[in-house]
Amino acid sequence: MTEPIVRYNQVSKYFGDLQVLNKIDFDIMPGEKVALIGPSGSGKTTFARLLMTLESLSSGTIQVDGQYLWHEEKDGKLVKASSKHLREVRQNIGMVFQHFHLFPHMTVLENVMEAQVTVKKTPEKEAEKISKDMLDKVGLLEKADVYPAQLSGGQKQRVAIARALVMKPKVMIFDEPTSALDPELVGEVLEIIKEIADEGEMAMLLITHEMDFALEVADRIAFFDGGKIVEQGSPEQMINNPETPRLNEFLSRFNATNSL
Amino acid sequence: MSTLEILGSLLKEGLLVTVSLTFFSAILALVLGFGSGLARMSKSKIIWFIAGTYVELFRGTSLLVQLFFIYFVLPMFGLRMSAMVAAVLAIGLNFGAYTSEVVRSAVQAIDVGQREASVALNMTRQQMMRRIIIPQAFIRMIPNLGNQLIELFKSTSLVSLITLTDLTYQANVLNGSTLETTKIYTLLLLIYFVLAWPLTKGMNVLERKLTEGRF
């Protein structure tokens, strides 16, 4: 039996007194594409940010490829991870943000090369080749030498995807990757994500409001509500036969807005 | 005494002192400013406290008094130094404290998304600061640093009070011996203005070069 690439175990998260995640257990298998859906404030973004170490755990554990992310084992006990340990485990995770967060002082090529050179210590020549190949793949090789400010939103997001991909993570988080885009630019980004998904080997955690896209790409959909995963299953099952009234309500509201 | 003669004797010795004083104390201020500005964001309480104390101490007292203190009081505790060293130290320390605030606020103004992207690319905190945060913060600092540089340049005239023979000192000496007060101080004003001009322009050009097409 294959081991999960990511395992959440009894994960809770509080912001002050507010509980955003309530004792969540969740496994992601290697190469699996999981879409997270749910109303805003349901905890799905926090759930993903914990994995990227952008928020700290309140309780529970997260394991990545069998290693604890936020903890390490010392004398048979779990203690808070050192930053060295955290970074070692974190190299398996990558993330694409809603607002891209490209580095504005670097060209497109430099953006994609940066972490390969500074973090992975890839020789510059090699990193340049890898980066150009990746930019070619996302259709932006001719923009290699321009600054992000000169790109459209869709182009920025494609650069951000290339920047994350060259680090070769085993799990990639997409946090509402098209929510900040003009409607006519959504397609080009979804197309790239679909292409990556079809290649298979990388697991994906996709937070999205694009229900059709989730249906097309995801192996499994998890529905978040009130800090819990209320329901999960295959896309067909979730969309066509929602079991819980909350999901039913969420989907019908969704269809209502979409058909307007 | 003709105007030209006055100009000549003002510039002959004073110019070099004023310019080199500006140069060395600006470098010291920049180093101290960056050091303490970044230290004030440190997680270490001790580093944070030392930097904070330095900044508050030197922002909260007058440069002139600091200058007197370093030049006249420290020797009583066995710390003897030349007027030039005392002046560079006083001006550098004083402006370093202001620069510290410029550095800190520019770094803190960088969008949190830049930090998150750095974490997602698995950078260390040091790599993030060096490659992502500081280069962007530096561009934001330039207008403020430019203002500070001009302020620093003009404040070097205070050193004439600890016997350093800068432009202002030379003007005072000349005034004492010739009583051509109007000519001398008008020329002195003009000299400072002409020297400050390229500093202002230079900073503008630097800012434009660094932001071209990027922001």
Give an account of the 3D structure:
Chain A: It is a peripheral membrane protein. Chain A: It comes from Desemzia incerta. Chain A: It holds the Pfam family ABC_tran. Chain A: Residues 6-251 form the ABC transporter domain. The complex is a heterodimer of chains A (260) and B (215). Chain A is an alpha/beta fold and 260 residues long. Chain A has helices at residues 44-51, 83-90, 108-118, 124-137, 153-165, 183-199, 211-217, 235-240, 245-258, and strands at residues 6-15, 18-28, 33-37, 59-64, 67-68, 71-74, 77-80, 93-96, 171-175, 203-207, 220-225, 228-233. Chain A has a domain at 101-168. Chain A is built from nine helices and twelve strands. In chain A, the strands form three sheets. Chain A has a six-stranded mixed beta sheet, with helices on both faces. Chain A has a four-stranded antiparallel beta sheet with strand order 2-1-4-5, with helices on one face. In chain A, strand 1 (6-15) and strand 2 (18-28) form a beta hairpin. Chain A is globular. Chain B is mostly helical and 215 residues long. Chain B has one domain (3-211): MetI-like fold, CATH 1.10.3720. In chain B, helix 1 packs antiparallel against helix 7 (167-178) and helix 5 runs antiparallel to helix 6. Chains A and B meet through helix 2, strand 8 and helix 3 of A and helix 5 and helix 6 of B.
